[in-house]
Every structure is written in C-alpha cells, then in structure tokens.
Amino acid sequence: MENKFDRSAKDWDNNPVRVKIAEKAIQELRHRVSPAPDIQVLDYGTGTGLMLLGIQPYAAHVTGMDSSLGMLDVLRGKIKAAEITNVDVLHHNIETEELPKEAFHLVLSNMTLHHIADTEMFLRKVYHALKSGGSCCITDLETEDGSFHHEPDNSIKHLGFDKNELAKHFEATGFEVLHLDTFHEVVRETGRRYPLFMAIAKKN
C-alpha cells in the first residue's frame, strides 16, 4: 500500500532543510566516529539516501533499509546513475522484521526514530545487528510541540525526544552512550528554532 513517503519520494530532495540536516549529520559523524574504509554500515530509514550517499565513499559496504518502496526506487536510481557498487538497498519493516545479527560495524538512522513507536525495540534490534565494539549514530528532533511538521501526519509517533530520557533507553538496551548533544538547528521562516540531537552509542 502506498504511503505518504512513497507519494513524496520524487520531490524529497528538493527540500533544502532535509538536505542540510543530512549534510550536517555526515559532517558531525565523520568528526565523532571517523569511519574506517573497511567497515560495514547500515543506514536505517535511508529514504532517498541523503545520509547513505554521504557515508558510502568512506565505507567498504553500505546497506540502506527503508519501509517506503517509493523512496528506495529513487535511491536505486541515484546508485545506478553514479555507478556505485558498494551499496545494497532493501525494503524492511522494523516493526515486524528482524535485522541481521552482528552484521555491521556502524548503524546510522537520520530523522527516522520519531516515526518508530517502540524506541527500545528499535535500539534493541540495532544493538543485536552490531558487531562487538560497533557503534550506532542516531540523529533526530529534540522535544518539540508538534509544529515542526507543517501538516498532520499519522506516521509521527514522537514529538521529538528528551535527551536524558533517550539516554536511558540506550542504557536499558545495553549500549554505552558516548555522545548525546545538539548538533544542528532548523530555523523556520517564522523564527521558530528546532534543535536536533546526535546520539552515538557503542556496543561493548
């Protein structure tokens, strides 16, 4: 069944706010984690690949997963056009499917967590998908009043996240939180500011 992400996929990258968030996240990630050229990476909620294509040159292999077939079609087109050979793109529903066990050195997820109802379920699946010593990097909205998204959207399960509460979710899952702080702000035309956090956690 087509969803809002399928319908908006072709125009997704035309939004400069989304592009800037991904650019800032990649910049901060490379500063904080310094991806090695031999790592296996999962980008969960990859969408049109704004994060995936930013990290792909610095990794041995990247897997992009998303529940939107429309988004994945756009990403596949980009990969084909650029003749990229170290990326796999998979349709996946985190609510009903497991992730591969101990398969990745790094798991990324950008602006996806607020669409997943059960935060600890997601973190638990990510934890088990990581190799020992692997890290996850999650970027998303800090707590907001619901005005970040311009129109009602039933795919939104959380109005951002309180950083202290999110740290507890990571720790309950077994992660060691290495970094959890604001890395970017979206400023609307109205002057409203919406801070975004980056969380980096390690599987020991």
Write a brief caption for the model.
By secondary structure, the protein is of the alpha/beta class. It is built from six helices and seven strands. It has a seven-stranded mixed β-sheet.
Task: Label this structure with key terms.
single chain; alpha/beta; seven-stranded mixed beta sheet; 6 helices; globular; methyltransferase activity
Question: What is CATH's topology name?
Answer: Rossmann fold
Total strand segments: 7
Structural category is: alpha/beta
* Rg over alpha carbons: 16 Å
Total domain units: 1
Major β-sheet strand ordering: 3-2-1-4-5-7-6
What CATH architecture do you see? 3-Layer(aba) Sandwich
Query: What is the CATH first-level class name?
Result: Alpha Beta
What name goes with the CATH superfamily? Vaccinia Virus protein VP39
Relative strand content: 25-35%
Given as residue ranges, the uncertain stretches (5+ residues, pLDDT < 50) are: none
From the spread of the alpha carbons, the general shape counts as: globular
Quick check: average pLDDT?
96
Order of helices and strands: HHEHEHEEHEHEE
Span between N and C termini?
39 Å
Proportion of helical residues: 25-40%
Q: Helix count?
A: 6
Largest sheet: 7 strands, mixed
GO molecular function: methyltransferase activity
Protein name: Methyltransferase type 11
Keywords: Methyltransferase, Transferase
Organism: Chloroherpeton thalassium (strain ATCC 35110 / GB-78)
